[in-house]
Amino acid sequence: VRLQGSPDLTAEDLLGDIDPTQAFKYGPQDYRAFTPGKLLKANRGIVFFDELNRVPEKLQNALLQVLEEGVATIGPYDVDYPANFIMIATMNPRERAGVEELSDILLDRFDVIKMGYPESPEREKEIIRHYGAKVEGIEVPEEILDSIVSLTRATREEPWRKELEQPAGVRASLSLYEKVQAMALLNKRTKATKEDVRQVAVSAMGSRIKTSPESKFYEEPFVLIDELAGAILKK
If DSSP codes are grouped into helix, strand and coil, which group holds residue 4? Predict the structure, then answer.
C-alpha cells in the first residue's frame, strides 16, 4: 500500500473513520460501522510512505500509536488496529519547504539510510537511458549525453557547488535529455546537439537549483545556469 505524505493528509485517510449511517444502524463500535483507512489495508503486507516528514505532527502521533500499541484513536473511541506490516518511508531534506520535524520517538522505530546522487557519470547515464522518455526518430549521441550529465554534475562539484544551496539532481538530467529531443524534433532534425542543451538548460534546471545567499548569483539563478552551460558545453 502506498501513502503519499502531504500537509492535507488526514487521520481518516490514514486510519479510517466511523460511518455515521452505519453507526446508527449497528452501533459505533460494530466493525460494520468502520471504514478502514489505508494502513489497515496494509496489514500483513508492506506500507510505502513517501515523504513521511511532510505530514503534520498530529498524524505522526497517530502513526506512532498504531506502530507502538496496535491501537488507533478514532473520534472518542480507541479501536484495536492490527499493524503487522513492514513500513518503508522516504523523507525530504530538512531544508526543503513544507517539511515537518520528525520526533525522535518516531525515528527510533526506523533504521535510517541516506541516498545521495549517482556515484559516477556512467551510473547517471544508465538511469537516463532507462527512465528518460525517448522521441521516435531522434538520436541523442553519446557526446550529448555526456554533456547533459557533465552539466548537472557540475552543480554538485566545485567550483559551482559553493554557489548553490541546492544542486541539480537526476530529474534535471532526465529533463534535459527529454527536452533536447524535443528541440531537435521542433527544428526538424534527427539528432540532438550541444546547442539544444544550451537552449533548454534554464528551462530544465531553473526550478531544480537553489542559489546560496552568499552567491553572486543569488538573485540571478538563470544567469548562473547560462554561464555554467557555456563553460561546460564549450569543452
Answer: strand
Q: pTM for this one? A: 0.76
* Helix, strand, coil percentages in the chain from 3-state DSSP, rounded to 5: 45, 15, 40
Is the distance from CB of 205 to CB of 166 less than 8 angstroms? no
The string of pLDDT tens digits covering residues 88-132 is: 999 987 666 678 888 888 888 899 998 889 999 999 999 999 999
Per DSSP, helices labelled H in 132-220 are 142-154, 170-186, 194-205
Q: Where are the alpha helices (DSSP H) in the chain?
A: 11-15, 20-26, 38-41, 57-69, 104-107, 121-131, 142-154, 170-186, 194-205, 221-233
Task: Report strand pairing: 46-50 vs 2-4.
Answer: parallel
Alpha-carbon distance 13 to 38, whole Å? 7
Instruction: Give backbone dihedrals phi and psi of 92, rounded to 5 degrees, phi first.
Output: -85, 155
Q: 159 preceded by cis ω (within 30°)? A: yes
